[in-house]
């Protein structure tokens, strides 16, 4: 009986610790979301590696404002106005028009996690040197993004996001983050800027 009581107390203490970590993780993510989700906009440089299809490593620039984003790499440019996504591939001179799912948005927008954590994820946290390492685990096994690790600095700006989709991990390293005033116009594709590009509507 004594052993059962001790085990029960240990389980209770563990659950209380997990709950406390989840609370701290949410508080940190709330503060990070406020910084990253600056109402006028924000931008950063990034390096992305891994993922399905072995994409290798590439680097680029991303600008965000609310749920809109613009991303540019040597291979492609992506515009997302909150509903429609345009992807221009330099090698083929084609623009694909799509309505992306959650996983696709997260792989292209390293700040997608600032809305994901608010529903459907179990949160955990631990210290990683001078930063916080936040763990997000999907509660629904059918969710396209099952697991994320987000490294966040003391100033509440993220420096790395690791995303698991199926068995594949994508790692996004973030640098040179800054808030700035961004025009809504930069998040929509303008055909006149690419007059010779072929438009492929996949919606």
UniProtKB/TrEMBL annotation:
Transmembrane segments: none
Keywords for this protein: Signal
Signal sequence region: 1-19
Matches recorded under InterPro entries: LolA/LolB/LppX, OM_lipoprot_carrier_LolA-like
One Pfam family from the record: LolA_2
Gene3D superfamilies, per the entry: Lipoprotein localisation LolA/LolB/LppX
The keyword Signal is assigned to this record: yes
UniProt name for this protein: Outer membrane lipoprotein carrier protein LolA
């Amino acid at each position: 009986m004594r052993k059962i009581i001790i085990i029960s107390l240990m389980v209770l203490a563990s659950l209380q610790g997990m709950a406390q970590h989840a609370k701290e993780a949410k508080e940190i993510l709330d503060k990070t979301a406020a910084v990253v989700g600056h109402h006028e906009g924000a931008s950063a440089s990034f390096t992305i590696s891994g993922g399905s299809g072995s994409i290798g490593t590439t680097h680029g620039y991303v600008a965000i404002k609310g749920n809109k984003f613009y991303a540019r790499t040597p291979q492609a440019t992506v515009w997302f106005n909150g509903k429609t996504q345009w992807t221009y591939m330099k090698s083929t001179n084609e623009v694909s028009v799509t309505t992306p799912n959650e996983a696709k948005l997260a792989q292209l927008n390293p700040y997608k996690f600032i809305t994901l954590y608010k529903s459907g994820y179990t949160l955990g946290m631990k210290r990683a040197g001078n930063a916080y390492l936040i763990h997000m685990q999907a509660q629904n096994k059918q969710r396209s993004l099952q697991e994320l690790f987000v490294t966040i600095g003391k100033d509440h700006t993220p420096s790395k996001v690791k995303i698991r989709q199926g068995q594949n991990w994508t790692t996004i390293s973030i640098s040179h983050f800054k808030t700035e005033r961004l025009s809504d116009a930069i998040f929509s594709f303008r055909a006149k800027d690419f007059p010779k590009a072929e438009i492929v509507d996949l919606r």
